[in-house]
Amino acid sequence: MRTPHDVVIIGSGFGGIGMAIRLRQAGIRDVVILEKAADLGGTWRDNTYPGAACDVPSHLYSFSFEPKTDWTRRFSPQREILDYLRACARKYEVLPLIRFGAEVTEARFDEDAGLWRLATTGGELAARVVVSACGQLNRPVPPSIPGRGTFTGTSFHTARWDHGAELDGRRVAVIGTGASAIQIVPEIAGRASRLTVFQRSAPYVIDKPDREYRPWEKALLGTVPGLHALSRARIYALYESRALGFIKYPRLMDLMARRFRDHLGEQVADPALRETLVPGYPMGCKRILISGDYYAALGRPGVELVTDPIERVTPAGLRTRDGREHRADVIVYATGFAASDFLAPMKVAGRGGRDLNEEWRDGARAHLGITVSGFPNLFLLYGPYTNLGHNSIIYMLESQIRYVLGCVRAMRAHGLEWIDVRPDVQDAFTREMRTRMRSTVWESGCASWYQNAEGTVVNNWPGFTFAYRRATRRPDPRHFVARRARGPRALTVR
Questions:
Q1: What is the DSSP letter of 351?
Q2: 439: Cβ–Cβ under 8 A, 6 or more apart, which residues?
Q3: SUPFAM superfamilies attached here (predicted)?
């Protein structure tokens, strides 16, 4: 507590590792990363379930400053992405900065000292700047189904996969049909003696154009100058074009809906099953999923799709509202995350002791999804209004990292102790987001994890990613109030 650190980063996923790398490259050496787990990697460390993989092509789902030309597949599996992050941490000497087993329980801004006081499970420390890189998909949410504690078999959430659980020849129940479930189901459909999939609402699933890269392709990517960059740019442009359907012209989603219907028709021969797999909401309102084998897995012998609501968990399995008892040896909860809570469950207190949970009681707000009024020198990566439905979140993270770095550089250059975004600037941004959101497909009449408890979409960016990059290209001094440093409190360069 005696010597405050220049920058403390919370989380060691893509955001945390990327932020640390860029800070070190800018000459800011006193950086600490606090990680609650025993390893880095964020969501790619936590989600080790069978079939876990990315739904953004490999060449785009990576740092722009650290291209990887030897990805094994067009869509990288979990282990390969985690290995990539570890390699980045080693190459850029970030590993020594990480304090593992240090979960932040409380962050309090000391206005007199101009410092953040952090309480963690590994001790206390102080920081001039705090960057939260916790992400949106880090807190698993088990379903609130009565009787969950009575089940006598094995049960777990997909993000806490029990690799000791025996699935071969067992009766397995999967609750949920989201992004994790459609990857898990094909992997275990041929292993379980019986697989029961419980669907609350059908997702839109389109074909996944995945395949292994051939040796000659990887050789060319690694040797021909500019070829990897061209591949990345091509993928970016293709995916970015889809934003038109999400944010401005929802009728364009009909083109993608046609692709969905073709894929469903090719994979599912049973008309009755096919009917239950057609969503009852506009395409894109919820996350669009990609899989080449999910629908085929549902048609396998021994696999059943159940659409009746679950009434309760019983000692022997699950009972649905129609009175049926679905016996199971293993229950897998593919029920998602608390995506709109952002910094929860840590307690965060800003200027004048204001409580962040109270400030956000009617929805999370942060200017550009990065800075929160009343909470000086606190920066969010992957905060509200920065998630995407059509492109790579790494592109958004790099935009945010550049913005935060610009703020830190300005503080250092002008001898500022702290900066705080003005409330009117934050309010104007929030109003703009909510106004623009009304024309998007995400507000076309469905419930999704993009929304908070009040049903307001607070996660997604209602625009093009290149527009977000332009908006975050540099911090505008007019957007902030500041206090000059008193004594040796400015950020140091070592």
A1: G
A2: 247, 248, 250, 462
A3: FAD/NAD(P)-binding domain
Q: Would the CA dihedral through 432, 433, 438, 440 be positive or negative? A: positive
Residue 93 exposed, middle or buried by CB count within 10 Å (0-12, 13-18, 19+) = exposed
SS3 389: coil
pLDDT tens digits for range 29-71: 899 999 999 999 999 999 999 999 999 999 999 999 999 999 9
Question: Is residue 72 within 8 Å of 213, Cβ to Cβ?
Answer: yes
Would you say residue 364 has pLDDT above 70? yes
- pLDDT tens, 180-214? 999 999 999 999 999 999 999 999 999 999 999 99
pLDDT in tens, 106-145: 999 999 999 999 999 999 999 999 999 998 877 888 899 9
**Interhelix angle 215-223/227-241, nearest 10 degrees:** 110
The candidate with the shortest Cα–Cα distance to 397, out of 387, 382, 385, 384, is 382
Alpha helix segments (H runs only) across 224-270: 227-241, 243, 253-267
The per-residue DSSP string of 10-32 comes to E--SHHHHHHHHHHHHTT---EE
Strands 289-290 and 317-320: unpaired
Q: Please tell me the distance from the alpha carbon of residue 333 to that of residue 270, in angstroms, as a whole number.
A: 27
3-state secondary structure of 405: helix
Fold assignment, 5-139+338-484: FAD/NAD(P)-binding domain (3.50.50)
* Location of each CATH 3.50.50.60 domain in the chain: 5-139+338-484, 148-216+225-333
Name the 3-class secondary structure at 327.
strand
User: How far is it, in rounded angstroms, from Cα 173 to Cα 380?
Assistant: 37
CA distance 63 to 165: 35
> Is the whole model's pTM more than 0.85, yes or no?
yes
- One-letter amino acid at 220 equals L
Q: Which helix (H) or strand (E) holds 347?
A: strand 347-349
Q: Which residue has the tokens 């059943």?
A: 304
DSSP state of 325: E
At 274, list the tokens.
């096919």
Q: How far apart are CA 68 and CA 90, in angstroms?
A: 15
Residue 315: asked if its preceding bond is cis (omega within 30°), the reply is no
Distance CA 458, CA 455 (A): 9
DSSP string across 80-144: HHHHHHHHHHHHTT-GGGEEET--EEEEEEETTTTEEEEEETTEEEEEEEEEE---SS-SB----
